[in-house]
Amino acid sequence: MTRAASLPQSRLRSNGGTPIVGTVTRGTTNPNRLRRMDRWIAATHGAELRRAGEPVAVDLGYGAAPWTAVELLGRLRTVAPRARVVGVEIEPARVAAARPYERAGLVFRHGGFEIPIPQRPMLIRAANVLRQYEEGEVAAVWERLRARLAPAGDGSRGGLLVEGTCDEIGRRHVWVALGPEGARTVTFATRLGSLERPSDLAERLPKALIHRNVPGEPVHAFLRDFDRAWAAAAPYASYGARQRWIRAVRELTAHWPVLDGPVRWRQGEVTVAWGALAPVR
C-alpha cells in the first residue's frame, strides 16, 4: 500500500509555512454539479451533523469557482442550521477569487490534503479531485483525509469523507463514503432520464474502482448484474424510468448488500457496502 508520506507534495506553502500536499487540478466546475452528492450527504449524515452542534465541513478542491462550496453550505444548513463550510484549494489564485463570496459560515483557505484548519471536520467532500492521480495513490490520500476527520465516540460514528466523480453537469455520479475506520459504502446516483443502462455509470467510477471494471473484479460483476436486472425490469418502463430503476434495484438486493431503500432509490440512487465492491487484486 502506498504510504501517506509518499503523496505528491506541492512546492507551495501555506501562509504559516506548512507544506501543501497535493497537485493542482483542472478546476472544472459548474453550478449545481454536486447536487446529488450533497442531497445524499444531507439525508444520510444529517443526524451526525446536528449532533456535532457547530459542525465544520470541508469542500476540498472546489475548483476555479466557488459555486460548490456556496451550495454545500446551503444544503447542509437545511439539516444542520449551524453548519460551517471551509473551501480548500491548492491554487492560490482560486482562493483569492473566492474570497468575495465569504459570508457567515463560509470561508476559503489555501491548502491541500493536509486540510489546513484547526478543527477536525465532520465532513470532507472531495469531488472530482482524485481523477488525475494514480490508482496506487488513492489509499494514501484516503488514509490522510480520514485521519483528519472528527473521531467516533459518545454515540457518534465520527466524521465522513465522501470522495467520488461526476460528469460536468452532475447527471451521473459515483462516490465512496469513508469514516475514521475506513471505507463504508459506494453510491451510484443518476438522472434516470439520461440513463440507457446502469453500466453507463462505469465511466464515473471513482479512481479506486474505475480501473477495476474488468472481469474477475466485484464492481464489474455488480454492474453486469445491474444491467441484467434493468433488462428484466423493462416492462416497468411504461410506468417511467423511476419505477424501472426501483424494480431493478429491488432485484439486486437478492444478491448484493444494498444498504438503502425505496426512498433513496426514487432519487435515482443505490448504495452498496464497500466490502462487496472493493478491488480483489
Automatic annotation (TrEMBL):
Keyword Signal appears in the UniProt entry: no
Alphabetic keyword roster: Methyltransferase, Transferase
Biased composition (Polar residues): 7-17
Disordered: region residues: 1-21
GO biological process: methylation
Keyword Protease (UniProt): no
Record-linked InterPro entries: SAM-dependent_MTases_sf
Official protein name in the record: Class I SAM-dependent methyltransferase
Recorded GO MF terms: methyltransferase activity
